[in-house]
Amino acid sequence: MQIDIQNNISWRDRLFAALIFFTRLPFWRIYQPKKEAYETIIEFWPLTGWLTSACMAATFYFGSMYMPLSFAAILAIVIRILITGALHEDGLADFLDGFGGGGNDRKRILDIMKDSRIGTFGVLGLILYFMLLYQCLTILPAHTTALMILAADPFFKMITANLIQYMPYARTADTAKNRVVYRKLSIKSGISLFIQGVLPTLPLWYFFGLPYICIALPALVYYLLYLLMHHRIGGYTGDCCGAVFLLTELSFYLVYVIFSLHPLASL
């Protein structure tokens, strides 16, 4: 029944729903998707990453031609925040507040994550996150970093999207922030998701190589976060998805930068 309902929602509805939800660009002026389409937005999440990563990478690369690399990095980070409306950063802050301050109490964790106020764990977590992200963007040559950005954003959105396959939603539609529960992926949408996530990694892989550890460590981070969510709240939320995406992406940046500078990186 679930697959039949999904097939009755056109790809145009699903695509525009994803673009409207995951960005702050006025796609709603072009097309208004069906309400049910928002339950399927995860399957086009990596494709929205093509847009955000392209804007971020272009801002960084071309900005580095006219300003110091540090300024270009800050501007690139700001561009992504403006495009997404800090959606994922908000999720990371809520995730850290909930799991940092909620202990093992499932209800308390979910209540804290739903609270619009930011706490100590969220503030400190965002500061550390942006410090590490900034450093990762300023170490390698601009063209390498631009390709790294293009690869990482869609790929780790694709990886994170699989959370909905492995775990139940921890809330109900009535208690969810956006009143939406994501539907599980069909085989067709799963293949599409994989293609969306992997294609942007090919230029980085071809021109500079991609050590296997750059995928293995983020995979470990993903698994540990999965275990944490499974143990504490027995599922996932939208905040969890945003946090897992940013943390796995950041772990990729850290490992890729370290191994690009290390003499054994080519092994």
Can you describe this structure in just a few lines?
This protein has one domain (11-261). With 267 residues, the chain is mainly alpha-helical.
Topology record:
Layout lengths: L1 H6 L3 H12 L22 H19 L5 H16 L2 H15 L4 H9 L5 H18 L4 H20 L1 H4 L20 H12 L3 H7 L4 H20 L5 H24 L6
Helix pairs in contact: 3-4, 3-8, 5-6, 5-7, 5-13, 7-13, 8-10, 8-11, 8-13, 12-13
Key structural traits:
267 residues, mainly alpha, 13 helices, disordered N terminus
Structure explained in plain terms:
The chain has 267 residues and is mainly α. The chain has one domain. Helix content is 68%, strand content 0%. The chain has 13 helices and no strands. The radius of gyration is 18 Å and the shape is globular. Joins adenosylcobinamide-GDP and alpha-ribazole to generate adenosylcobalamin (Ado-cobalamin). Also synthesizes adenosylcobalamin 5'-phosphate from adenosylcobinamide-GDP and alpha-ribazole 5'-phosphate. InterPro entries: CobS. It is a multi-pass membrane protein.
Gap from first CA to last CA: 49 Å
Helix- and strand-based class?
Answer: mainly alpha
Give the helix proportion (percent range). 55-70%
Shape call: globular
Main sheet properties: none
Beta-strand proportion: under 5%
In round numbers, the mean pLDDT is 91
Spell out the helices and strands N to C. Answer: HHHHHHHHHHHHH
Number of domains: 1
Low-confidence stretches: 1-5
Topology, number of strands: 0
CA-based gyration radius: 18 Å
- State the helix count: 13
